[in-house]
Amino acid sequence: MSVRRVRHLFAIVPLLLPLGLAAQSQVDPLGRSVLFIRGADGSGGLGSGTPQQRTAHLSDIQDTSTQPGNHGFGELAALLRSDGFTVSQWIESQGVLTAALLLAHRIVVFGSNNRVYSAAEVSAFHTYMDAGGSALFMSDANWGPDWDAAPKSDNQFLLRYGLSVYQDSASGVPVISRSTAGRFVQPTHPVVSGPDGAGPADEVNDFDGEGVSYLHVERGSEGWVASVLVTATGFQVRQLSNTGQPECWSPPERATVRW
Questions:
Q1: Cys-Cys crosslink for 257: which of 80, 82, 191, 214, Cβ 3.0 to 4.6 Å?
Q2: Rounded to an integer, what distance in angstroms lies between the CA atom of residue 106 and that of residue 89?
Q3: Strand order in the sheet with 107-112
Q4: Three-class SS of residue 84?
Q5: Is pTM, for the whole model, over 0.70?
Q6: Domain extents for the chain?
Q7: Contact 222/162 with Cβ under 8 angstroms?
């Protein structure tokens, strides 16, 4: 696994997988369809710039720019297609999120979502997960019209699983390194050590970057348990606020914020 530094892919990336729930899977376990969920046109960039510039912040899979500072997922989509995946995109302004929409895909990527979903839509996502689906969440403040929109959008879905996303980090450019004792809780997991679990060529050794969004982990409900691979304890986090300037804190009871 090769890793390059990009502006917001170092944000929270929890991967949710169903852990033996009783419902019979309606999602093809061998399926290779990936659905990316993107915010509505003009809804990114913290409300700054032209409508076109705000849309450009939303990491569209059709955006193939390789210019410095680009935000597109076009290169990622191309890599997935080259590995035999079918890649599509649903934009939040296109209608209602339903179980039928999600069940056709093996993986759903919440890549730049930022809107408030209804209780029925959140329930549809849970139905998808219970039916054998998988979800990848990434969070960044610039994916919303204000500072708290993107993490709040994620948290609607994540609460059931014992997860919640904080707003972007409170200070500095944090670096989480394999070389720091206790950081990599599961150092041989395929996500951080490649499919062979051994490395070193495939290993992820560091997470770093501006604007990291931390994840708080607790026990989920209905039999869901989070598996932590890398911890980020001891860093300051932001309370959710649409100003971007909330109180910053990292008291002991919040020392379990994890990545």
A1: 214
A2: 14
A3: 15-16, 134-137, 107-112, 33-38, 86-91
A4: coil
A5: yes
A6: 15-258
A7: no
